[in-house]
């Protein structure tokens, strides 16, 4: 299924905050239709990596390319237009607008730009995809937590992205919601979307990801299928600490 | 929603048509009051076009207004009058673009301070020029009547409403609402936030400069302290907040009562105007945080809720 050229590739991506190296010389590729899990202990640089890809932060050095075109020096809005769309670790909705208008924001200004009736139909289609079409005219303040996450996901999907970045999209859900959430992302995966997800929920990683990159202290320490990396002694050490420390 | 817009549009057209008959009453007092209302309507509505959705409070109105006044003041010696308001508009837009590019990347409070300083800066530059040339102020002597000024302002108001209506329906208007809600989301959705903000700031800067140009003949004599009075910038903000910035017609419902209030204050307490301006500002912010628009819509919503329960 995989084509040769990766959709997204990072080469030596590095981010320093003063003396702290948050992301250190990171390399990885994401292939078309692939779901890539970015995992690692807290503070290992996963979210910073997403911020580098989406343009929220400029990398200190190194290259990031979308289908071979460098994007590392572009502002966030250009990267979004080129087809990288993201959700935020803490859900960000547009509080003064209806659910539908939130999603329309993605349809109107994203990778593929629509307007008028076309944008609205597309936004409704995305709401249906995430299971929220009945609440299109609700106010965002009336939604449950998982529904706010669905709105954000629909907004991101509405831009027809080439790569979808999900920053702990499953975090904070209760067990029932988690099941729904995993099923929803699996549907996106079955639709052939290319997804990078930062995640802590191991069940989700095992069942959703084709490949994983494990980060610790800003660097990549392992790469492979979920089963491979999760049984890697170095990964276990990064998560649980050395025997001596215990 | 579209029907409601059509109704609002018809209402605005009707109000403008009725207002246009004001000079026919022959009352100099009402005409002068009408000019104030028309002037503040244009200034406040165009201010709210930018500041309403983005929540960037601009205190640069006086700077644009003063530049417009001086455009007429200086230009009238060389050019026919009708050419001057458009030139003032272009100058206002250019100035807004420069200021916008320099400051709109800054967040909230830095932008407010910069815009307040801008009027002062331009004023000081003109004073400096005058000190060199030895000239104090400029006489603007034209044959333009009060009624003509009033009609020009009404036409400008119609133009501002039309622009606001069109922007509200455009991608640009939608982009600004998104920016006002969450600039981070706006950027990550693919919106060039700097460009959208600068574009709207230019519209509001141009409108204020044209108002200054149109009103200059009325002042007859202009000098920096009157053309660039910071009071004007604050009045515009207060009136916009009193009316409410969430709707295009919001500023108008702030302008009318405030103009009468201001008239009463200036007539009865000519020496305490600044003090009373400050007090009215505090009262408005405490009692009507979302302006008359918020009050009206809140009441409507409550009534609807009551109907739903009944």
Automatic annotation (TrEMBL), chain A:
Residues 8-242 form the ABC transporter domain. Pfam families: ABC_tran, BCA_ABC_TP_C. One of its GO terms (molecular function) is ATP hydrolysis activity. Signal peptide: none annotated. One of its GO terms (cellular component) is plasma membrane. SUPFAM superfamilies: P-loop containing nucleoside triphosphate hydrolases. InterPro entries: AAA+_ATPase, ABC_AA/LPS_Transport, ABC_transporter-like_ATP-bd, BCA_ABC_TP_C, P-loop_NTPase. The keyword Translocase does not apply. Keywords: ATP-binding, Nucleotide-binding, Transport. This is ABC transporter ATP-binding protein. It comes from Psychromarinibacter sediminicola. The lineage of its organism: Bacteria, Pseudomonadati, Pseudomonadota, Alphaproteobacteria, Rhodobacterales.
Automatic annotation (TrEMBL), chain B:
The chain crosses the membrane at residues 57-76, 82-102, 109-129, 149-168, 198-221, 227-245, 275-296. Its main location: membrane. It comes from the Bacteria. InterPro entries: ABC_transp_permease, LivM-like. It is found in: Cell membrane. One of its GO terms (cellular component) is plasma membrane. GO terms for molecular function: branched-chain amino acid transmembrane transporter activity. The keyword Cell membrane applies. It is a multi-pass membrane protein. Keywords: Cell membrane, Membrane, Transmembrane, Transmembrane helix. PANTHER family: HIGH-AFFINITY BRANCHED-CHAIN AMINO ACID TRANSPORT PROTEIN BRAE, HIGH-AFFINITY BRANCHED-CHAIN AMINO ACID TRANSPORT SYSTEM PERMEASE. This is Branched-chain amino acid ABC transporter permease.
């Amino acid at each position: 299924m995989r084509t040769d050229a990766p959709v997204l590739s990072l080469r030596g991506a590095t981010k320093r905050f003063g003396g702290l190296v948050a992301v250190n010389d990171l390399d990885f590729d994401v292939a078309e239709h692939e779901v890539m899990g970015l995992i690692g202990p807290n503070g290992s640089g996963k979210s910073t990596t997403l911020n580098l890809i989406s343009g929220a932060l400029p990398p200190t050095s190194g290259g990031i390319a979308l289908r071979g075109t460098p994007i590392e020096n572009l502002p966030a809005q250009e990267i979004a237009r080129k087809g990288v769309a993201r959700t935020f670790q803490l859900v960000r909705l547009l509080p003064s607008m209806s659910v539908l208008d939130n999603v329309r924001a993605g349809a109107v200004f994203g990778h593929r730009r629509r307007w008028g009736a076309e944008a609205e139909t597309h936004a409704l289609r995305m709401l249906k995809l995430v299971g929220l079409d009945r609440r299109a005219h609700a106010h965002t303040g009336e939604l449950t937590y998982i529904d706010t996450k669905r709105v954000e996901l629909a907004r991101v999907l509405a831009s027809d992205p080439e790569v979808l970045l999900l920053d702990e999209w499953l975090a904070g859900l209760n067990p029932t919601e988690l099941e729904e959430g995993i099923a929803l992302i699996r549907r996106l995966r079955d639709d052939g979307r290319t997804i990078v997800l930062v995640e802590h929920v191991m069940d989700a990683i095992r069942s959703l990801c084709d490949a994983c990159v494990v980060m610790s202290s800003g660097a990549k320490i392992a790469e492979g299928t979920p089963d491979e990396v999760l049984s890697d002694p170095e990964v276990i050490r990064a998560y649980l600490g050395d025997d001596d420390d215990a | 929603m579209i029907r409601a817009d059509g109704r609002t549009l018809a209402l605005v057209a009707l109000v403008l048509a009725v207002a246009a008959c004001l000079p026919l009453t022959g009352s100099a007092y009402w005409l002068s009051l009408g000019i104030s209302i028309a002037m503040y309507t244009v200034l406040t509505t165009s201010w709210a076009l930018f500041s309403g959705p983005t929540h960037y409070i601009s205190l640069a109105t006086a700077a644009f207004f003063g530049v417009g006044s001086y455009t007429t003041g200086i230009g009238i010696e060389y050019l026919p009058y009708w050419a001057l308001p458009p030139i003032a508009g272009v100058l206002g837009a250019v100035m807004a673009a420069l200021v916008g590019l320099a400051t709109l990347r800054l967040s909230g409070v830095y932008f407010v301070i910069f815009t307040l300083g801008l009027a002062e800066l331009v004023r000081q530059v003109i004073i400096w020029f005058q000190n060199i040339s030895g000239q104090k102020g400029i006489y603007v002597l034209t044959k333009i009547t009060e009624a003509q000024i009033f009609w020009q302002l009404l036409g400008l108001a119609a133009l501002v409403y039309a622009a606001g209506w069109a922007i509200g329906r455009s991608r640009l208007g939608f982009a600004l609402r998104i920016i006002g809600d969450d600039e981070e989301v706006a950027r990550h959705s693919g919106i060039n936030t700097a460009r959208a903000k600068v574009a709207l700031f230019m519209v509001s800067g141009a409108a204020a400069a044209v108002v200054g140009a149109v009103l200059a003949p009325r002042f007859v004599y202009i000098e920096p302290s009157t053309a660039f009075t910071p009071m004007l910038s604050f009045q515009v903000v207060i009136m916009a907040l009193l009316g409410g910035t969430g709707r295009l017609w919001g500023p108008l419902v702030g302008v009318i009562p405030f103009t009468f209030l201001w008239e009463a204050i200036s007539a009865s307490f000519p020496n305490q105007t600044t003090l009373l301006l400050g007090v009215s500002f505090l009262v408005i912010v405490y009692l009507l945080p979302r302006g008359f628009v918020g009050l009206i819509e809140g009441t409507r919503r409550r009534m609807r809720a009551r109907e739903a329960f009944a």
